[in-house]
Specification:
about 325 residues, alpha/beta, 2 domains, 5-stranded mixed beta sheet
Length: about 325
């Protein structure tokens, strides 16, 4: 796979860097248990099915997996964290390149969506259908089926969450299945795959805690997946710090407004903190309408705008959300 193709496909929106770590893990899973993976995806593959991705490097440089299922039958599998708008077009281009080399073969194209988003099952202009795709949304798959085979267990932490289930709980169950049922020579590799794929949803601490609790203490430190998780945590920490800084800044501005209107007093910080929850316009209006700092404090305790003082402010009411919306951003 070319570096350009990898970067294009794997850029995420949650702070994770654009690396092909999930694709690499799933290609490794396919290399070890091709028939098991094909059976799960509904690919009719003969026992002698082989990976052809390496056989046609010029045609499959950005293809995750190309399988020779049997005489005249090919299957392409693409693993994506979230499908992008151009994915159907890239699949159409890949189809053309592959069939140019194998014109007598029939090609089925499969897409496995790891995290979220929807992938259309066909590429069409409304009148003509140019390509059809077999799409598997992993977050909608039953984890219990995946946990019946240690070769598929690494996928379970990404599967459907039943009521009361958690991602780290599914990871622990997957690691237990791998430790109990996989051949000893494969145990460590499958466990590492499960931990890498769990990074789609979990942070490094949760992943390594699950490993220790299941007697599979495999560290991702120093690996590509480990570095990815560290960078993601750093990005999220920066975002949380920026949000906290915005709230503190808003509180300071409102405090200055209160001092200018009513003079200094011990209640100014508490009143300013409560005003932040009202939103910018409502907070300023409340200050300007109040007859005194004490009266404003009492009004806020009573629950302004009909809200009980014990009811937390709704996100849409907060000044920080209003400021973010004005900038077109999201938390």
């Amino acid at each position: 796979m070319s570096d350009t193709s990898r970067r294009r496909r794997d850029t995420s929106t949650d702070g994770a860097p654009p690396v092909p770590v999930y694709d690499d893990a799933l290609r490794q899973l396919a290399a070890n248990d091709l028939l098991v993976l094909c059976r799960w995806l509904g690919i009719d593959a003969d026992p002698g099915a082989v990976r052809l991705s390496e056989a046609f490097p010029s045609a499959t440089e950005d293809v995750d997996l190309l399988v020779g299922c049997g005489p005249g039958r090919l299957a392409q599998v693409e693993f994506v964290r979230r499908p992008t708008a151009d994915l159907p077009w890239r699949l159409l281009e890949q189809r053309a390149r592959i069939l140019r080399l194998e014109p007598r073969s029939r090609l089925r194209q499969h897409v496995v969506v790891l995290a979220g988003g929807r992938m259309p099952p066909e590429l069409t202009d409304g009148a003509e259908v140019w390509a059809r795709f077999h799409v598997t949304h992993l977050p909608e798959q039953d984890p219990e089926y995946l946990l019946t085979d240690p070769a598929l267990a690494p996928l379970a932490p990404l599967a459907l969450l039943a009521s009361g289930a958690t991602r780290d709980g599914l990871l622990r169950r997957a690691l237990e299945v791998i430790r109990r049922d996989s051949p000893p020579a494969r145990t460590r590799g499958l466990a590492a795959l499960a931990m890498v794929l769990a990074a789609v949803h979990l942070d490094l601490d949760a992943i390594e805690t699950a490993g220790r609790e299941t007697a599979m203490p495999i560290s991702l430190g120093g690996t590509v997946a480990g570095r990815m998780l560290e960078q993601r945590a750093h990005a999220r920490g920066e975002q949380a710090g920026l949000a906290a800084g915005r709230v503190a800044g808003q509180q300071a501005v409102l405090g200055e407004l209160l001092v200018a209107r009513f003079g200094p007093g011990p209640r100014v910080p508490a009143v300013a903190a409560r005003l932040v929850a009202l939103g910018e316009k409502a907070a300023v209006a409340a200050v300007m309408d109040a007859t005194s700092l004490d009266a404003l404090f009492d009004d806020l305790l009573a629950g302004p705008r009909g809200r009980s003082p014990l009811t937390p402010p709704q996100p849409s009411d907060t000044m920080s959300v209003q400021l973010d919306r004005s900038n077109g951003g999201e938390e």
